[in-house]
Amino acid sequence: MIEIEVKASVDDPKQLERSLIEFGATPIGIETQADTYYNAPYRDFGKTDEALRIRVEDGKSVLTYKGPKMDKVSKTRKEVETEIKDIDGMGNILSSLGFFPVATVSKKRKNFRVGDFFISLDEVRDLGNFIEVEIGVKDSRNFQEKVESIFKFMGKLGIKRESSIRKSYLEMILEKKEVPFVPLQ
Fold first, then answer.
1. Which of 58, 107, 148, 160 is deepest in the core (most CB within 10 A)?
2. 1 within 8 A of 78, measured Cβ to Cβ
3. pTM for this one?
4. How far apart are CA 63 and CA 30, in angstroms?
């Protein structure tokens, strides 16, 4: 699966939510997520632009691997997920293999759908409010067309292309806290 995603900071999330509804977006739920990110003992995911996380959401846990970003304007990347039945066991496996937690990103997410677009309005602890618009595709052929369609959609919401953010929430939190993405000794 390829996740084609564009993110931007939001000044007025309530107004943006009203705009989405006026645009025809269908609300599809509110989630509370806690994403714990891990780094590997043999390569620095911060340098390779990869991510490995465990997401806990409403009692469900998912292990996700995200590959490096595939272009210079969006957050398009390969994504592989699998549900975790035993989160403590999974944490034990990761630590036994030398993986270590780097940081946890906590957010409240309001989700919407418009056509092929999955839209999230995120309130991220210690960072603020954001919009993420994504489309999932099976392969990377012509993904640039999908990226452009997301920018066009966001433009209709009054969000300029130049205001998009390619950094992950993890990157922003680590920068804010000035925490290096390296093993703790």
1. 107
2. yes
3. 0.89
4. 20
Question: Domains in the chain, please, with CATH?
Answer: 2-177 (2.40.320.10)
Locate 38 and state its tokens. Answer: 């891990």
The pLDDT confidence band at residue 178, using thresholds 50, 70 and 90, is low
Q: Cβ-count burial of 53 within 10 angstroms (0-12 exposed, 13-18 middle, 19+ buried)?
A: buried
Which helix (H) or strand (E) element contains residue 156? Answer: helix 143-156
Dihedral sign for Cα atoms in the order 107, 110, 114, 115: positive
User: In sequence order, what are the residues at sequence separation of 6 or more whose Cβ sits closer than 8 angstroms to the Cβ of residue 131?
Assistant: 7, 8, 10, 16, 119, 120, 121, 122, 154, 157, 159
Residue 7 in tokens: 């993110």
Strand partners, 5: 134
Residue appearing with tokens 């489309």? 135
Contact 41, 130 (CB under 8 A): no
Which of 82, 38, 32 is CA-nearest to residue 59? Answer: 32
**Contacts with 115 (C-beta within 8 Å, 6 or more apart), sequence order:** none
Which residues are annotated as catalytic? 37
